[in-house]
Every structure is written in C-alpha cells, then in structure tokens.
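Hey, can you fold this one?
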Amino acid sequence: RYPFARRTRDYGELLADARLDAVAIATPVATHYEFARAALRAGKHVLVEKPFTTSVREAEDLIGLAERGGLVLMVDHTFVYTGAVRKIKEIVERGELGELLYFDSVRINLGIFQTDVNVVWDLAPHDLSIMDYVVGRDPLAVVANGSCHIEQGIENIAYVMLRFDDSFIAHFHFNWLSPVKIRRTLIAGSRRMIVYDDIEPTEKVRVYDKGVTREVNGDKETAYQTLVSYRTGDVWVPKLDSTEALKHVCAEFLSAIGEKRRPLTDGEAGLRVVRLLEAAQTSIASGGQPVRLR
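Sure. Predicted structure:
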C-alpha cells in the first residue's frame, strides 16, 4: 500500500533525515525516553505511545526539550479519542450528571503477562488518562495495593485509589489473572450516572437517570430522622462517533503541528498520568501507604 515507504534498522538514520518532520514512537516503555529525547534534540515533533515515560523526571525533561525547541510533543492516550469517552466528556461538561461523586473503573482479563512492566503500568494509563480528561481535577494522594502471583516483583493484580480535596473519589481495579474480560467504568453524579462498557459492541455508553436524595427532618439534634429517597428514571443511550480512535490521534498530531499548538494529550497530560503511576508504584512498595502528590 505504501511503495515509497523506507525502512531502516537504525533509528539514527531517521533522525538525520532533514526531510522528516515528525516521528511516532511505539516501542517498549523503557526506551521511550531515550528515543523521544533523541528525536526532540534532532528537531522532530514526537508522538509517544503510552505510558509516556517510566518516571516523572524523564517526562519533565522531555516537556522542557519540546518547549525550548518549539516542537509538538504528544502522548497516545488512545481512549481519550474514542467516540465513547468524548461523548462522556461532553455530557459531564454540560453538567448533566450534576456534582461528580465518584469514578470507578475495572479493567481485567487473562493476560497478557508483561516482563518489563507490571499490571499498573500496562493497563492503568488507559483509565487514568480517561479520568484525567473527563474529570479534569488533580488528586491529592494515591493509595495502591498489589500482588505478584506469577513472577516475583511484577504485580499482576492491583487496586488503586485516588483521593481529592473533597468527597469525590476514584477507584481502579487492574488484573491480568481474571477468567473474564471486563472493561467497565462507572461515573456517578448527583443527578445522573454513566456506565461505560468498552466491550459492549453497540451501546458502550448508557446514561441512567438514577440517584439518591437525602432529606433531614428537624434540626441537627434530630438528624437521625434522615430519610433517603431513591429516584429511578429513564436510561439514555447516546449516539457515538464510530471513527477509529487512532485516526483521531493521527489527525490531532498533524493538526497540532500545522497550527503550532499543543495537542489535546500533550506532554503535560502524559506527565499527569506518569505522576499517578509512579505514586501508585511507591504506595504498592510501601504496603499501601498513601503517597501525597505535589
């Protein structure tokens, strides 16, 4: 299909080609920083697979290089570009859910077991990037627990919880050792709630007009008389854009280069996710102790 495409076994040959404006890096996580840094120093715009880097320090260094060189640095947080997540963002921004209460996500399956990263670094970038995009708030602390059942030192199951400056909470379950494949996210608001099931072929997003109303009879001294009423309304299935997410990713990358602007999932977005990943790993290593974020 692409008879003029050139191949090489030496990426240095790519970076030395003055006709090449941009590169996409889809390599093992441990090599992202090295390759992206070399590309930015060669004056190339860069699109990097998730996770962005293996540490906050590396991410900050790449962001600095891109800013000093006036280059576009983008992270492929693919799910942000899906029709489902973009629709969810639209619904949340319109205030249809009301005040956000919690974000609960499950991403589990049998394998694929990695040898260079654990289940958090492998699966969590998807859900953390979705939460970062949809909720648009920075957590204060991360608490995580994980276990190694197959290979020592590489967690194959993990639970990650993010704490914010109010009652909003985010919880994630990642697992390579599950008999079933589940990709499901619940986002609850004071007015409506969303269930996002990525495995569902046609109705990936459902909006539920359900909720709970708290009524207190009397003053604080008689608060025990609190009454809880449950609201059950309609279920709405919005129409979604079926365009492949990677097409939107490529279009955003090219558009950002042409318009000399920051892409939707820029280096800062990648850094926010890496900061959460790094904090989760630290919490796991300390037996589940909370790790405060800057």
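The radius of gyration is 21 Å. Let me know if you want another pass with a different chain boundary.
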